[in-house]
Amino acid sequence: MSQQATVFLSYTQAELDAAYDQTVWAPNMEQVSLRFVRASVRTRSRLGGPRRLAYGPTDIEHIDFFPARGASGPAPLVIYVHGGAWHARSVRNYEFLAEPFVNAGAHFAALEFISVDDTGGDLFPMAAQVRAAIAWLARNAQELRVDPGRIHLSGHSSGAHLAAVALTTDWTGEYGLAADLLTSAVLVSGLYDMQPVRLSARGDYVHFTDQMEQVMSSQRHLHRIVTPAIVVHGTEESPEFQRQSREFAQALAAAGKPVEYVVAEGYNHFDVLETMGNPYGLVGALALRQFGLQAQ
Question: How confident is the model at residue 1 (pLDDT cuts 50, 70, 90)?
Answer without folding.
Answer: very low
